[in-house]
From TrEMBL:
It comes from Nocardia pseudobrasiliensis. Residues 255-398 form the Acyl-CoA dehydrogenase/oxidase C-terminal domain. It catalyses: a 2,3-saturated acyl-CoA + A = a 2,3-dehydroacyl-CoA + AH2. This is Alkylation response protein AidB-like acyl-CoA dehydrogenase. The chain crosses the membrane at residues 77-99.
Amino acid sequence: MGFDLTPTAAQHDLAKRAHEFARDCIRPEAAHYDRAQEFPWPVLEEAARRGFYSPLFYRDLIGDRTGLSLPMFMEELFWGCAGIGLAIVMPALALSAIGQAATPEQMLRWAPECFGTPGDLKLAALAISEPEGGSDVRNLRTRAVRDGDDWIIDGHKMWIGNGGIADVHVVNAVVDQELGHRGQALFVVPGGTPGLELVRKLDKLGCRASHTAELKFDGVRVPAENLLGGADKLEHKLAKVREAARDGRRSRSATLGTFEQTRPMVAAQALGIARAALEYMTAYANHREAFGAPIIDNQGIAFPIADLATRIDAARLLTWRASWMAANGVPFERGEGSMSKLAASEVAVDATERAIQTLGGWGYITDHPVEKWYRDAKLYTIFEGTSEIQRMVISTALGATEGRPPLYVDLEPSGGPLSKMFGRGTEIRTRAAAAALEMKDRVPAPLVRAAMRVLRPPR
């Protein structure tokens, strides 16, 4: 089993460039865009200029088999500001859905339209949630009906990032009423399509630099080629779902699959907020004096910070594991994606709340950014599935995998027959070590030392 947390040279450079961008371009503008609730177009332009706003950039990160490039980038970006960060990465959520469902031709057609180019930026939106559904994708009511060479979409969407202002909307809709949520499909609805209505821009508690909207689809007509995957793939999928239903088997929702793949990405965003709060309160506690000493000398201040640092690192490891699994096609059979999102989002809320408490009255006013981070962090226990939904996914997965061994036992091993015979902990190595110890007084010292060098742990 390979386990190496040392970043590659490319990952190290990516994290460094992302951190510099967050420090120099995002943080100085964060308070303004939070107060004004304006879309941060100038920051997006700079992101595009630096290569951080492009479909090829995100596809490249998603293709990293270590799985670590994307969460490293996300954490640094959202360390800067979650609202501006969401404005920058929102098209990547739509791109992820397109990447899972689209044909290669559709990918080439729509991926560039999700981002545009510097000087001619475009936006994309992933329109999943509905007023009656929220996290319950089984209760989605938007419908799509075939009409000749077109599809007609009717429905109501809520909490849609970039909704109504996007050039590309990726919309899920039920195409088979009898199959319900198992009979969904994804469609591309270009901005400005007749019947697509921006009902209102939502006035949010936090992440106020990002645009979030309520949408209605009233007889929205799109051509058949806007059905992601195409008609043949859809019919094949629906046939499998019907067969599974007849046999009493459960089939998977494509929407749920999209959520599972993006949850580690969202977890990394929450980690950026949590880390920002941890660093800020630690620095404040180191320099703020009360009763003749820095307040960090008080265990009531220091111990909660220590607990949060531990939980943030634990959540990061869960996130990296889930990202590695997604990058290598390892199914989240035990709810690993939901574990990462649950741990990261809840520690983000706790860290930002503790930061306010550490700063006291100063933390409650806008002189310091911790109150903003607190408002931003709360979103992460809600969107992409609430914490309650994550617990439901995890507990359901545990029930379904009752009696199964841990993931590392279940995974297909690497290393081949030589590793199985001579790797660390194998029976042959153990017997050889025991024999060497028994013969140490009868074997020349150089041979014993050579054997011990083979067996010693790496330095």
